[in-house]
Amino acid sequence: MSESFVKVEVRGRVGLLTLNRPQVLNALSNEVIDELSAAVRAFEADDGIGAMVLTGSQKAFAAGADISAMSDWTYMDVYKADYLGGNWDALRRIRKPIIAAVSGYALGGGCELAMLCDFIIAAENAKFGQPEIKLGVIPGYGGTQRLPRAVGKAKAMDLVLTARMMDAAEAERAGLVSRVVPVERLLDEALEAAGTIASMSLPAVMMAKECVNRAYEASLDEGLLFERRNFHALFSTEDQKEGMRAFVEKRKPEFKHR
Ligand code: CAA
């Protein structure tokens, strides 16, 4: 049996996914994405999982889509297959939170994959970039849309047009990553953050994720209404009763995730 491209582990209520294609710096072939998508969907369906961490190797989170696979494709090949749709697109429909733990290169589709996670924790050696322009193409998995939303137009244009890489410190200053940690702390930090999230009420976590994402897609008015309706909806959960009673009774809440 061939070795899996995605290592799948469970740590308490956290699902850990590790890209495992080291020979090519975790280049994202369709096979890798199919496996990743299946693993993420399995965690999504598993009531025992409250959050996920997606990581790569120390040298590379992922160095982009698989250039060797793509090099001979024609317009009709990619158009008919709707390349970067399908299982690639399915990843962004996941409702439980996913943290990207990025060490080393996150380039092209690798940077885009990290950006479609809910937030990025970076190791000090992380490097982010959208170097597709050097290959005669452009980012195709959200880079021209998510990067400007994360870092603003000036820096996004700079990265997309010059193909230069941004180190972890610059990425944190620009707002692309939420925290930068020493390389050896990366996985623990991400697992701790995911563990904290997974200990919260799952319905509240899922609605919070959905509402924050709405901020990108709707007018302020629509976003505020969406947030308020979800806030109202959470008063139908047992966890809201438990969370608020526990606060009043000065004890830790015991969430049932319903
Ligand atoms: N696809 C396929 N193979 C890749 C790859 C990729 N994206 N990135 C690296 N590799 C392979 C290399 O070909 C090399 O294989 P061999 O050992 O068989 O030669 C192996 O991984 C190691 O890479 P390097 O020897 O190049 O390692 P390095 O340390 O010298 O350089 C690097 C590292 C700067 C990341 C360099 O590998 C690189 O520039 N990679 C390509 C980055 C890139 O252009 N990404 C965008 C891809 S297009 C895309 O992602 C489209 C989209 O929007 C979805």
TrEMBL record:
Pfam families: ECH_1. Keywords: Lyase. It comes from the Bacteria. The keyword Ribosomal protein does not apply. The keyword Lipoprotein does not apply. Belongs to the enoyl-CoA hydratase/isomerase family. PANTHER family: ENOYL-COA HYDRATASE, MITOCHONDRIAL, ENOYL-COA HYDRATASE-RELATED. This is Enoyl-CoA hydratase. The lineage of its organism: Bacteria, Pseudomonadati, Pseudomonadota, Betaproteobacteria, Burkholderiales.
